[in-house]
Amino acid sequence: MRPDSEGLPALEPGREPKPEATRELMRDPTPELWAVLRCDNFAAQALAAWDPALRKKPFVVVNQDVESHKTRLCALSSLARARGVFYGLSLPLLRKRFPDVEVVARNPEWESGAREEMDAFLRGFTPDVEVGETGLAVLDLTGTPALREMDPPELARELRAGLAY
Questions:
Q1: Neighbours of 142 (CB within 10 A)
Q2: Run of H or E residues at 154
Q3: Three-state SS for 43?
Q4: pLDDT at position 2
Q5: 4-32 pLDDT, tens per residue?
Q6: Coil/strand/helix, residue 23
């Protein structure tokens, strides 16, 4: 019997595998499952996660000087969105139309901390995780214990609950 170079069982001399048997042996029985998590307005969510007082009021996040008339909004809290605040507003227009909405400077350190916590939480489900700068996370859940213990909708609910602040 000779070993097969592709990892198939060894064959007796002169015997060739049947095509359907070869395909069956090469087929991976584990279904692939990937999850992509998008944290909308990540800069605002990171600020609210670290500062609970921001969770109770509408606010917007800016990249530049909070007093500059040229500053544009880079993230909106859910309460600000609910009030009708939208991207593209200049600060003077925001302050005129929505005087009760607080303007907060972006905090890269808090965002980094939020990404680190997100990464640590997600690694409880799979070691194959990538969390990007904007809070977008990609998980390969193929063959993980989490996938064997939960069906995909239950897993999605678990991920969502664990990432909520």
A1: 14
A2: helix 152-163
A3: helix
A4: 44
A5: 455 555 556 656 555 565 555 455 566 78
A6: helix
> What are the backbone angles phi and psi of residue 56, rounded to the nearest 5°?
-100, 0
Q: Cα-flanking dihedrals φ and ψ of residue 62, to 5°? A: -120, 150
Give yes or no for a contact between 39 and 107, defined as CB atoms under 8 angstroms apart: no
Residue that has been written with the tokens 């969502």 in this structure = 160
Residue with tokens 């977008």: 136
What is the spatial distance between Cα 97 and Cα 102, in angstroms, rounded to a whole number?
A: 12
Tokens 């880079």 identify what position? Answer: 74
Neighbours of 65 (CB within 10 A): 11
Q: Which two tokens stand for residue 26?
A: 């090469």
- Entry pTM: 0.73
Our CA angle for 7, 10, 15, nearest 5°, is: 125
pLDDT tens digits, one per residue of 75-102: 999 999 999 999 888 888 999 999 999 9
State the amino acid at position 102 in one-letter form.
E
The span from the first CA to the last CA of the chain, in angstroms, equals 60
How are strands ordered across the β-sheet holding 34-37? 34-37, 137-140, 129-131
How many Cβ atoms are within 10 Å of 39's Cβ, its own excluded?
Answer: 20
Measured distance CA(140)–CA(152) in Å, rounded: 13
